[in-house]
Specification:
alpha/beta; Rossmann fold; seven-stranded mixed β-sheet; four-stranded mixed β-sheet; 7 helices; 24% helix; 28% strand
Length: 229
């Protein structure tokens, strides 16, 4: 299966699937590592923002097949917890502490997590407020949340997150454009500490499958939030 992940809108746009339907199609061939140029640029940005994970309780939120949970394990996290709302993705996830849950209702006590890692997931939701409130609730005072998203500029410019299903048909994945101001306003008890926006052509990791995308366009936005005392 070949994943383009990003595709410009043509006269015949690909059918858009809900995120649950899309990942049901995608799960069996979705490896737990950055497997395309977009994800490589996103992961490089997240690594630049990442605090130490050694001896920390880390939540891989919207974990999918476990990419960030495995990174946390490799960095010596004391405990890695993984939640996702897609049963097929969880089935393909090798992390031992995993469960079915949404970003909008995290089944953990208040102030129980040192670091939340949430990669390329909140853009599937039309609203951010409930998810950001839950992230703030489960974080300990001074804890960190790293959240990445498909950049709203490139989405509003006509690009889509797409994949090719086993039958060869290309689908777009449900997505909503959230601006910096949307995240800032939704941050409940969190402050924006740092932001990285990898741009197309910035380096060899920031590439794009569609020649129609203009060089210099930001493709990802990655945030680091800190829980206020």
């Amino acid at each position: 299966m070949i994943f383009t992940y990003l595709k410009r809108l043509f006269s015949s746009s690909p059918q858009t699937l809900s995120s649950l339907d899309a990942y049901e199609h995608w799960a069996a061939n979705y490896p737990p590592h950055a497997h395309n140029a977009l994800m490589q640029a996103e992961e490089a940005a997240m690594h630049k923002l990442m605090p130490t994970l050694k001896d920390q309780v880390v939540l891989d939120l919207a974990c999918g097949t476990g990419r960030y949970g495995l990174i946390a394990q490799g960095q010596g996290a004391k405990q890695v917890i993984a939640f996702d709302n897609s049963p097929p993705m969880l089935k393909a996830n090798a992390l031992p502490e995993k469960a079915l849950a949404t970003t909008e209702a995290i089944p953990l006590p208040d102030a129980s997590v040192d670091v939340v890692l949430c990669g390329l997931a909140l853009g599937h939701l039309p609203q951010l407020e409930s998810s950001m409130r839950e992230i703030g609730r489960v974080l300990k005072s001074g804890g960190w949340a790293l959240i990445s998203d498909f950049h709203p500029f490139i989405f509003l410019n006509g690009q889509r997150r797409t994949f090719t299903a086993p039958d060869g048909k290309v689908y777009a994945v449900e997505h909503y454009a959230h601006l910096y101001s949307d995240y800032h306003q939704a941050a409940d008890g969190l402050r924006v500490d740092a932001v990285i926006e990898p741009r197309l052509g910035q380096d060899k990791t920031v590439r794009f499958a569609d020649d129609g995308a203009r060089e210099g366009t930001p493709v990802i936005i990655a945030y680091r939030f800190q829980k206020l005392p």
